Amino acid sequence: MKQYPTFPPLLKGHRIAINKSPLKRAKAMVAKGELGAGDLVWVDDQNNLRFCIVLGPEVSRLRCGEILFVMMVAFGDALGALAPPEMAVTYKWPNDVQLNDASIGACDLELSREETHGIPEWMIVSLDITMKPENIMHDPGYEVWRTSMWEEGCGDISRTELLESVSRHFLNCVHGWSEEGFKSIHEQWVGRLCEKAKMVEGLFKGEFIGIDENGNALIKAGNDAQVMDVIEALRVIRSGKAHFQ
Length: 245
What we know:
Helix content: 25-40%
Oligomer: single chain
Largest sheet: 7 strands, mixed
Number of helices: 5
């Protein structure tokens, strides 16, 4: 079995140990000038898909959150190309990825604090997907709110082929986004929105009614309409105040 992935020419892979965070490692290396746009940091873990990609933004900070949805759509396309047709990939706002209505992972995004004319110096988008659970003593579906690809019948897909597929689809989606804007990504993401629970719990009070032209949440609270920034929502999730259920 092929162990290490081969990436498209625009991406350069950097393998790290299983106990390391790709996002934290990439941030540290970018700060030292050791990584730049096109570098992909991936974890050598056969049971989980964990990687991040460093990008050089060409859009304002207000639009950078759109890349989070680009990654989710790319994953949905990639898994759709490998998995049986009955596998249903859906999303919760802002970053939860689901398979058959249970969470299998999430995306994240961090931006440089430094910027030039409103454009951050870098952004790093990451994806963390559970391919096989750590504990297989329980029957599939033991935890109804989360699952793994193995539990959903996708255990024959290897980490390497999934990483290769996601990286290719991501570049295709980025190209379309950069040429045509967010509209197509917006439509594809909304088309896969989880109907049971459309948002990660604990982010806000009110009814989630959709996303705006930059991926921010549109919230209905009583007679008022509010907007929640996607980057702020990710910060809340990292703080542990929100949870995936």
